[in-house]
Amino acid sequence: MEEDLVVRVGVVSSTSDHASVVSINLFVALLCACIVIGHLLEENRWMNESITALAIGLCTGVVILLTTNGKSSHIFVSNEDLFFIYLLPPIIFNAGFQVKKKQFFRNFMTIMLFGAVGTLISFVIISLGAIGLFRKMNIGPLEIGDFLAIGAIFSATDSVCTLQILNQDETPLLYSLVFGEGVVNDATSVVFFNAIQNFDLEHIDAGIAAKFIGNFFYLFVSSTFLGAFAGLLSAYIIKKLYFGRHSTDREVAIMVLMAYFSYMLAELLDLSGILTVFFCGIVMSHYTWHNVTESSRITTKHAFATMSFIAEVFLFLYVGMDALDIEKWRFVSSSPGKSVCLSSILLALVLVGRAAFVFPLSFLSNLTRKTPNEKITFNQQVTIWWAGLMRGAVSIALAYKQFTSSGHTQMPGNAMMITSTITVVLFSTMVFGMMTKPLIRLLLPPTGKHLAHMASDLSATSDSFLLPLLGNGQGSEIETAQSLHRPPSLRMLLSKPTHTVHHYWRKFDDSFMRPMFGGRGFTPFVPGSPTETSRHF
After folding, report:
1. What residues contact 509, with CB distance under 8 A and at least 6 apart?
2. Where does the Cation/H+ exchanger transmembrane domain start and stop, copy by copy (predicted)?
3. Could you tell me if 316 and 57 are in contact, meaning their C-beta atoms sit under 8 angstroms apart?
4. Where in the chain is the domain with CATH 1.20.1530.20?
């Protein structure tokens, strides 16, 4: 009897392993297909990688539905841990690692205005709209915390479609605003979401509201400092030990593991892993990256970008298949009109919430900008508004975390929220995403005059003293220091005084931070190493 039981268990285990191997093979093949088809459609005015992955996911879901007689649309079923532990970290870290720090920190206050204050405005509008409208629709026993979570879920933007089209050399201001706001927005949305989980919002009063705001700032500041600390620690370790003299593999491994460690430590401490790993990426690119060998610099740059790319394609492919999940749609099949109405309301709240802060905050930002070239034009404001209409990875991950358990749900209200989230993500990514290229070409035509102006503007900027907070320009430190003391004109000196916060940061960075943690111009010297020739650079 016992032998028979062992045999049966072994057969079941073998069958399960075989099914897993088949599922993994199919999914990897689909990932390859997404990359190949995305490349072939590179010049298409309507398509991009995200839309391609969604479309292939939808087609795959239909095929699986037909072959399983409507029982499933998945190759495999995952839970929210897949998104938060494996997919989001490489996406967010690469965003911080590849960020153009010169533009990012030059427009830091505007980016924070859009990314933090703007997200707060959008969060309030969507949450209030959900409370006022969804309760009248009787979609299920949703609590006040669920409605606030909906505000956080749909405040998280996905500007990938727009960034794939914008050229940061032609429109550096617009690119830095869209990119920077997108990352800060995601981090802020997740911080809001995490803060909501820590409070009993059924009996909210002034004290709880004050604690909520205090908790938000605590999470924001603590997560930022943790990310910076992890980046500095990796820089110090690599600078002091200099693994590259023996093995470049070790220094690459330290960078990868320290980045992931910062994210998981933040999650362990109930902080925002997204914000932590983003600032870890910025600090690593400013210090750690310059401490490794030349071959490791090339390796890390492309490795981080590749991991981020694969994670994004994986996520959109899975969302495309999950959009046809029978288990979730079965709950809304009895009231399709209510489901359509719910999705339409969410989409309308996204549009209104986005417009409610982009145009007013752009007006406020323009008041602080001296010259017309620095101001955010109306066409650029429309582009920024449009760039934030798409919803993607973070919205999906937060929705699964709030309304499912291990990827499943048996509550009608929760199932309806999941299907509505998927509908909004699909519609905004497919419809808005396909309209992005034509819209940007209409609003921002790349004229020859515009390109010539941008070339002259960039040339002037490279010689000016409008320095970034964590600058990573191509000029030498000596040239930078000289430009600080020789402003090109009296007008610039009067309109942009030399002794700014950036100036004092650079003095502190050059005199203390970089000698200790390394960085451009302070790379470790080892005889015979790739840094030997540049030790006096």
Report:
1. 470, 519
2. 29-440
3. yes
4. 23-446
